[in-house]
From TrEMBL:
<keyword id="KW-0663">Pyridoxal phosphate</keyword>
<keyword id="KW-0808">Transferase</keyword>
<dbReference type="InterPro" id="IPR005814">
    <property type="entry name" value="Aminotrans_3"/>
</dbReference>
<dbReference type="InterPro" id="IPR049704">
    <property type="entry name" value="Aminotrans_3_PPA_site"/>
</dbReference>
<dbReference type="InterPro" id="IPR015421">
    <property type="entry name" value="PyrdxlP-dep_Trfase_major"/>
</dbReference>
<dbReference type="InterPro" id="IPR015422">
    <property type="entry name" value="PyrdxlP-dep_Trfase_small"/>
</dbReference>
<comment type="similarity">
    <text>Belongs to the class-III pyridoxal-phosphate-dependent aminotransferase family.</text>
</comment>
<dbReference type="InterPro" id="IPR015424">
    <property type="entry name" value="PyrdxlP-dep_Trfase"/>
</dbReference>
<protein>
    <submittedName>
        <fullName>Beta-alanine--pyruvate transaminase</fullName>
        <ecNumber>2.6.1.18</ecNumber>
    </submittedName>
</protein>
<dbReference type="Pfam" id="PF00202">
    <property type="entry name" value="Aminotran_3"/>
</dbReference>
<keyword id="KW-0032">Aminotransferase</keyword>
<dbReference type="GO" id="GO:0016223">
    <property type="term" value="F:beta-alanine:pyruvate transaminase activity"/>
</dbReference>
Amino acid sequence: MNAPTRVVPNNLEAFWMPFTANRQFKANPRLFVSAKDMHYRTADGREVLDGTAGLWCCNAGHSRPRIVEAIQNQVAELDYAPAFQMGHPKAFELSSRLIQLTPKGIDHVFYTNSGSESVETALKMAIAYHRVKGEGSRFRLIGRERGYHGVNFGGVSVGGIVGNRKMFGTLLTGVDHIRHTHDLTRNAFSRGQPEYGAEFAEDLERVIQLHDASTVAAVIVEPVAGSTGVLIPPKGYLERIRAICDKYGVLLIFDEVITGFGRLGQPFAADYFGVTPDLMTTAKGITSGVIPMGAVFVKKEIHDAFMNGPEHLIEFFHGYTYSANPVACAAALGTLDTYQEEGLLTRAAELADHWADGVHSLKDLPHVIDTRNLGLIGAIELEPIAGQPTKRAFTAFLDAYEKGLLIRTTGDIIALSPPLIITKAQIDQLFDTLRGVLKALD
Ligand SMILES: Cc1ncc(COP(=O)(O)O)c(C=O)c1O
């Protein structure tokens, strides 16, 4: 790793930081100045083990040579090309590469710049698809309690995290939610998928019947809910959701923004669970987080339904200035090369047992009310301090950072999702550090 850079800005005021306790941060800032492979380096010269792949995105680790080189070459050769009515070769090359990874039948790609934009795109596609098929009455969207689908209006509307919803008015109309799947009374300390709760899927049938199937366009779920604190789907749950969608002609959207690109030991969660959605939203791991990019993967029937009418007309009135940006495409190609050369899209499967041992080794520590895992995802749920929700986990986050480990917390849940290059020794180090942090908690 490079020698530490110690340049620290002397005024932090102007930057209004996203999803951050701004005043707390600015009183005691935590700045990363460089990163390599599994580690960040802080402004005060300390190494921090990345237990979260940045924000669930740096699946290949940090500053990986293939990706760095691909970006450097691309920006010098073709920095930008208009995204509408024009193309560039790498966008097509990348698409062909990507659809070799997607489940059978999902063979078209629409590019965005983030997970939030992928979600908006998929929701619009679903509604428009029914319309081009002559079923314009299907406009309702169904999400799930505790779901996270980014921060734009559509995604917040189908999302189910109260704090993300309550400040922003009426949101989208025509949206309903099914119940979440978190059930610690029956499933606490599950290793892998919880045993109980497939029947929670029946709530989808109830909601579809309430509105009548003829008004419902799509349901969107995260195969494994991440941002709400890692909720692993009970055995049989996703299969049941798929069957209900088929029964009522409702499109199933998997939000694979965190599960896509190897997190569970398969390219996508759809592969891991053996359940194929109609659309998949992705971002993050598509470029290993290095350049903003997202993609919506679509079944052939959905794409083909739009390909009608006069050929000079635009088929889908949607897109972004930076859709398939050349530098992002190059970054994604460099990322896919890295994944493929190093077997990273299946590496989580090899590490999953060792990882699960680490996660569950924390189960008897004070305040721990649940430990759970799947692939290279782990969560430790803490008993909240009475009257001060989130404080206990946030204290753990701050202490872990001081002890050289980056974790992520949401509510009183610690979520772990390291880069897929993590070694077994680093997994042990991660859980040893976390054990020290949890033992020190009040
Ligand atoms: C499942 C899911 N969907 C959507 C998003 C939003 O992605 P972005 O922050 O890139 O807009 C996230 C981000 O964490 C996510 O986890």
